[in-house]
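Quick one:
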Amino acid sequence: MATVKVIEVARVAPLPQELVLRLSALDAQWFVIPVIQRLLLFDDASGQFPPFESIVVSLRASLVSTLARFPPLAGRIVFLPSTGDAAIDCSGSEDGGARFVVAEMEDADARKLAGDTDHDVDAFKALVPELKTDALPAEVLAVQVTRLKGGVAVGVAMHHVVVDGRSLWWFLEAWAAACRGEDAVGAPTFERTAVTLPGGEELARSTLRKYAPNLPLVPMLFPPGPSLPRRTLTIAAQHIRRLKQRISDLTTSPISAQATTPAPSSFVAIAALTWVSFVRSKHPDAVSADNDVYLFFFCDCRGRRGIDPPVSENYFGTCITGCLAKATARDLLAEDGVAAAAAAVQGVVRRAAVDPLALWDWMDICSWVPLDRLVNVSGSTRFPAYEVVDFGWGGLTRTELVTMNAGGQMVLVAAKGGCGGVQASVCMEPDHMDAFNSHFLNSLVD
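Output:
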């Protein structure tokens, strides 16, 4: 097994800003959720990378200027005992800024890590930093730059209280642009009062007490579990179009009991096929035909007309709420099961468009949904990972979300090369991974 040797640990911080952001109820649930750990792999196949030391210098310098544009990432999450609030303090402290780790793992081959369909989970975990989040104050961002055999890895850990997936990719795009010497696009806004929930500050405090009753100590309700198998699939645009057409044909055919619905989006089509493949892989030994099965995903609340006033598209923070679809396993096992799944997902999407904050307290779902019958699809088919992450010394070869611990989880980003393809990374129990993979892929090419 390849091992990481840490060369240096430092702090990277811009000038402090007099900015303290009190958390909203939408943020509060994320205290007890694992942090985001995103891995970026760069394969120097052409041998044209600059020296590793130069890469480190450019990444560090550009991170300073980027953090000046995104001050919450250089701050600390703190507890305010006088009011019972938690806040992001960007005013600076002795241990402020982002932790910047330089390491080497030269017995790990960048090309192999970036090319294998099955993840080297242990290697991926070694290439991303951890954050200390079990008590406040808690750090928000850590970066690890690792020299590999034939390439470089950049690992990023970010506190989910402060960012969601959209914010993460915006930050990475801005950092990459700064590293190339270019101007970043967009001016972020940070004020948490932009997300209006009934109850305001008191709701934020009560939500904090609900999920983290012993602040400044923070419980971890979903600690890391065993390292389950993970596999990455690239879904070509033509296969997505074929899947969407198949769903539309089934929906309007005599064998389908579903009413006619609009053509599914790429997300709906992939989520539906994921759900059906999950049920088929677990049937009949773990899921019976009479069982209810569930699919969970997040809704981005920015720009939604169901929130008054709408949240700005430039809001930088965690601005997502839950969506839950339900069906019987029997419906999804049927010949037109993927159409039934798509109709259920579309129904939830339509409800979220009308009332995007209906499931803002999405953690409550975990108290009653049987997790062994739950599929979780996160990320987005629109996250332009491979388009925006170019630090100027080589395009991104592969990216993965390392924080995957639950069976039945799929993470989506737009695939390399654009043109409508999607990268889908799935985490499943060993007994079900092959069956899931077989049904999912076969359904794309049938």
